[in-house]
Design a protein that fits this description.
Order of helices and strands: EHHHHHEHEHEHEE
Shape: globular
CATH superfamily of the largest domain: HAD superfamily/HAD-like
Number of domains: 2
CATH class of the largest domain: Alpha Beta
Helix content: 40-55%
Strand content: 5-15%
CATH topology of the largest domain: Rossmann fold
Distance between the termini: 10 Å
Length: 227
């Protein structure tokens, strides 16, 4: 079956891992406490703080305890939906002020633009929040790339190592899994997508990727019509 849509990871795939770990995470760690204290009365922030209490099983946690929990989750790189949502709000301020610019590999920019022009539907699936995804592509060093994408998916669609998440994404896209190509630098994610029926391709940008999938080092090596 021909590829009709391409679903891509971000970290290590379209964007450098170092950008996330050396730029975005330290920025969020430094700014998150001040942001939450200043936005404590905001309704959207309050929803996320309630979700933190529920996930931590600490319903009576006060503000300082919540901050302690969040900073601890950040240190362990926990894939927590409320944490990702709050990080996204902090990054939004950083992008708006010009302190942050999203990193996207030039070969990814070129390929995404070419695939869009050739009629492929382009989608993103990352453990970062949808808001954070839009910020990376919308405020990228290459300009606003959000117009290339038809949709975004995060952990609210399920874990990236769970086949069922990819089936749900395919249903949301409106295509059989066999018509979707998934790109990632993580073998376990590729395995889950393949188990769901998607076509797969691994990116080995920063070292060897041992996986039972086609593997390339650049987006320029990917030809969807031949996958």
């Amino acid at each position: 079956m021909p590829i009709k849509a391409i679903l891509t990871d971000i970290e290590g795939t379209t964007s450098a891992v170092s950008f996330v770990y050396d730029v975005l995470f330290p920025y969020a760690a430094a700014k998150l406490p001040g942001f939450i204290r200043a936005s404590y009365g905001d309704a959207e922030v309050a929803v996320q703080l309630a979700a933190v209490r529920a996930e931590a099983a600490e319903p009576a946690a006060n503000l300082e305890r919540i901050l302690e929990i969040l900073l601890g989750w950040m240190q362990e790189d926990r894939k927590s939906t409320p944490l990702k949502a709050l990080q996204g709000k902090v990054w939004q301020q950083g992008y708006a002020s010009g302190e942050l610019r999203g990193h996207v590999y030039p070969d990814a920019v070129e390929a995404l633009q070419r695939w869009y022009e050739h009629g492929y539907g382009l989608y993103v699936y990352s453990s970062g929040s949808i808001q954070a995804q839009k910020l990376i592509f919308g405020c990228s060093e290459a300009g606003d790339l959000t117009g290339l994408f038809s949709g975004y998916f995060d952990t609210t669609s399920g874990g990236k190592r769970e086949p069922e998440a990819y089936r749900g994404i395919a249903q949301a896209i409106g295509l059989p899994t066999q018509n979707i190509l998934f790109l990632s630098d993580v073998a376990a994610e590729l395995d889950a997508a393949k188990a769901a029926g998607m076509r797969t391709c691994g990116l080995a940008r920063e070292g060897a990727l041992v996986a039972d999938h086609p593997v390339v080092v650049s987006f320029s090596d990917i030809e969807p019509s031949r996958m």
